[in-house]
Amino acid sequence: PADEVTNFSPGPTSLPKAVEQVIADGFNKPGLTSLALSHRSPEFLDILSHTVETLRSVMNIPDTYEVLFTHGGGHGQFAALPLNLCHDASDVATYVVNGTWSERGRDEGQRYCRVQTIDARDPQTGAYKSFPELTEDNIDPDSKYVYLCSNETVNGIELHRLPKLPESRKHIPLVVDASSDFSTKPIDWEGCGVGVLFACASKNIGHPGVTLTVIRKDLLGKDKASPLCPGVFNYTTNSEAGNLWNTPATFNIEVVGHMMDWIAAQGGIDEIERRSIEKATALYDVIDGSDGFYGTPVDEKALRSRMNVPFNVAGGDEELTNMFLIQSWEKGMIGLRTLTPFGVGDYLRASLYTGVPVEGALKLAEFMRDFARKHG
Ligand code: PMP
């Protein structure tokens, strides 16, 4: 492709150029980066506490929450949640399923607890395009938690703000899979009753290998987790050991810290959200203004993802789609063809994570407009 490349990959993906430079500079100082430090050395302890502190300040995480770094990715947390929040398999948990990732989280979760599903699948088409209302009727008051995914990476459905549970269900902790939208908008931790929020690192905050879990401290405690919960996934064990119960993903933790420093230097989370809105609006405007040449599956504009914009070209026409991919690649726009294992139609996807600069998204929007003019 061209010299200037914009990476629209759904993740793992490029970090902001300045962050990649900080990491590259670190390689030139052997012995000083977390690639070469014992996880128990004072130098790494400084890196770890810096990452935790910047995360807390950038994301406004209250002191009533613990910040954990574990292994196992989002999938690890799918299992860790019920194993930590349900003492045994007869405990109930409520899962909102409105896309492929919440479906996967629910499927893994139900191996460890009794799951009740609030299913948002369109009964006619089988597609996920909406987010259901959360009511007294669909949430069992005995649920140990209510689970949702705040950005469905594949389906392109995002909650721009977390919902609040109905008054009579406020005692239930909200559990959020924020793997693909964490650190792109503010979170009202206490106001929305967040109990646990987790994010795999490979979209907006770093690279795969470390997983961030933020847990409200009252949910920790020696006897709360299932006795079957492995130590590496046990929130209480990891919290008591200060994230050093076993060897953490040292380098990846350092990278998360660099990302948080960068966000702070850009003006903080409100500025990142402003850019996300600008990037996504540019693409959805082209799609909506294309007289049907481009299509996007989510009709409800308030739910359209700012992180992942799925779109098809001329109704999925193979020849035009391939032409679109080749020409955009030649102009330096890569990562648009995504090969998910979920089979959700012929959609391409432009992922607009924090590493994608506004100019990159505007360039794609312009290319799309030109392409539609020539071939529409
Ligand atoms: N949840 C969401 C919303 C995701 O986008 C992903 C990864 N694409 C996962 C969970 C799974 O994360 P991992 O591959 O790290 O297990």
TrEMBL record:
Give the Aminotransferase class V domain ranges.
7-354
Which Pfam families does the record associate with it?
Answer: Aminotran_5
Give the catalytic activity: 4-(phosphooxy)-L-threonine + 2-oxoglutarate = (R)-3-hydroxy-2-oxo-4-phosphooxybutanoate + L-glutamate; O-phospho-L-serine + 2-oxoglutarate = 3-phosphooxypyruvate + L-glutamate
Cofactor section: pyridoxal 5'-phosphate
Q: Which InterPro entries match?
A: Aminotrans_V_dom, Pser_aminoTfrase, PyrdxlP-dep_Trfase, PyrdxlP-dep_Trfase_major, PyrdxlP-dep_Trfase_small
Q: Is this entry keyworded rRNA processing?
A: no
The listed locations are: Cytoplasm
Gene3D superfamilies recorded: Aspartate Aminotransferase, domain 1, Type I PLP-dependent aspartate aminotransferase-like (Major domain)
Q: Which UniProt keywords apply?
A: Amino-acid biosynthesis, Aminotransferase, Cytoplasm, Pyridoxal phosphate, Pyridoxine biosynthesis, Serine biosynthesis, Transferase
Amino acids binding pyridoxal 5'-phosphate: 101, 153, 177, 246-247
Q: Which residues are reported to carry the modification N6-(pyridoxal phosphate)lysine?
A: 203
Gene Ontology terms, MF aspect: O-phospho-L-serine:2-oxoglutarate aminotransferase activity; pyridoxal phosphate binding
Question: Part of which pathway?
Answer: Cofactor biosynthesis; pyridoxine 5'-phosphate biosynthesis; pyridoxine 5'-phosphate from D-erythrose 4-phosphate: step 3/5; Amino-acid biosynthesis; L-serine biosynthesis; L-serine from 3-phospho-D-glycerate: step 2/3
Q: What is its EC number?
A: 2.6.1.52
Cofactor note from UniProt?
Binds 1 pyridoxal phosphate per subunit.
**Gene Ontology biological-process annotations:** L-serine biosynthetic process; pyridoxine biosynthetic process
Which residues does the record give as L-glutamate binding sites? 40
Its main subcellular localisation, reduced to a broad class, is: cytoplasm
Annotated Gene Ontology cellular components are: cytoplasm
Q: What class of enzyme is it?
A: transferase
* Role description: Catalyzes the reversible conversion of 3-phosphohydroxypyruvate to phosphoserine and of 3-hydroxy-2-oxo-4-phosphonooxybutanoate to phosphohydroxythreonine.
Family, similarity comment = Belongs to the class-V pyridoxal-phosphate-dependent aminotransferase family. SerC subfamily.
Quaternary structure, from the entry: Homodimer.
Q: What's the protein called, per UniProt? A: Phosphoserine aminotransferase
The lineage is: Bacteria, Pseudomonadati, Pseudomonadota, Alphaproteobacteria, Rhodobacterales
- Gene name per UniProt: serC
